[in-house]
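User: Fold this; tokens only.

Assistant: Input:
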Amino acid sequence: MVGSRVQLTKAGREYKACCPFHTEKTASFWVSPEKQFYHCFGCGAHGTALRFLMDYDHMAFPEAVEELAGRLGMPVPHEGGGGPKPQDASLYELMTRVAEFYASTLLRSERATRYLTQRGLTAEIMQRFGIGYAPDAWNTVLRRFGSGEHDRQALTETGLVIERERGQIRDGDRHYDRFRDRIMFPIRDSRGRVIAFGGRVIDRGEPKYLNSPETALFHKGRELYGLYETRLARSSLKRLLVVEGYMDVVRLHQAGIAYAVATLGTATTPEHLKRIFRLVREVVFAFDGDRAGRGAAWRALQHALPEAREGREIRFLFLPEGHDPDTLVGAEGREAFEKRIDSALPLSEYLVRELSTQCDIIHADGRAHFAESARPLVNKVPEGVYRELLIGRVAEVVGLAPERLRALWEGGLPTRPTAQPPLRPRTAHSAGRGSLVRQAVVRLVQFPATAGSVTDTERSGLDGSTEPGADLLRALLDDLRGRPLKTAGQVLERWAARPGGEHLGRLLDREEVLEDEGAAAVELRAALVKLADLVLERRVDALIAKQAATGLNSDEIQEFQRLMNRKAMR
């Protein structure tokens, strides 16, 4: 296994080489097949095959175990029965063959090759990342790889083809290629296996980028594009640069910034961050300087807070207006771009800067507002030195001693002036977090399994709701109760073409990050109960108003009595 990564020379019963973990001219790195052990007499690096994979390929322990097991053809048991299934092996093979087909098609397409060359990519970098081209046809992949029903099922399971609903079938096959006339970026897992694709249009078209759906092999919230290539390119990995696009990653690697990775059409997730911090102690997020980039950065900060602690660096880089990493590194080169990375804002300073734009910290009221806004964010940070330092930074802005600010926060006392709020009509709002409908929808999308916790009584309470978005909430809840899903990505995929589906992704972008499924289920059911209470209250108000105006008939009197009994029981 070591020999596949380091050029070894036989020396008796052992092998030697120049150490891959430090620079040397004389070989002092020894590998003993008999003892299944390696040791460097220069830097002291030593260990088994597992340790070598973890240090050389920057793999986490579970990934290293899977890599070794895969080489031996052995299954790896997963806690809770998760992980790859035996039939997944054929799916991995299929994805590899399709990736090779796309790569070969690129070489035969002058138009696609010209586009990539004009974007500044070299033949070497295209080959390194396995970039290809999906032909401009409805069924090229289907015809080439889907000769039998079993093959077509495999293509469907990997998201390479789409199956029409029966009512949509008129002429021809019920399947068609998902990717057509697009530059194709293979997405690889930690072992280098192709698990998904990202496709970019060459000319104008929508969507600009099209990703594989969630499948048995691919979970968007876990994978990082370019991470496998980063591991291959750098034997010493100290930090990762997280960008937003495939082309950004490829251009940065080509420029020599071979530690760039990208999320896959989603915001940075807690799973991404946990994976990053298993590999490195420093992460820099790079975002465009426009409104969308600032919004993405703020969401990344909220996800990053639970992972912020001493010994880790989390920083934010905002690029000049009109530039993304792809164009900027092309314009100014590696050295200038890395100077920008070195001067990126630490998380604490970005948090202070962003909150300061939302209130006038020159005045006491503004500073009090600043402190209240900072409190839930600071509370996401684990106890420790970093959290204490962050409290100190917030206290500095507010003008209080850190101990006083902490005491106010921990005691639940408000840090801004309070006043008697004006009386308002009943609305479906709660705690300043948006409407109850929005809260319920967000929890359903982020944790689809929470739909299963909703009782029939709680569901029926929605039937009379006329709140904005109630129709979408009812449809989403009924759908997830009848056909359960596990991830937000699967929900967005299913609802992409349905009425209201276009709002779900944007809705998530504006809402706070939720971390716990159990808490989300409790909050979902609480929101549904409150919505039902609101329906009841409004009907009671309507009956009271009618009684005062014209009187109630016998049926309405009975209804009023039933409603009042329900109120008394709540």
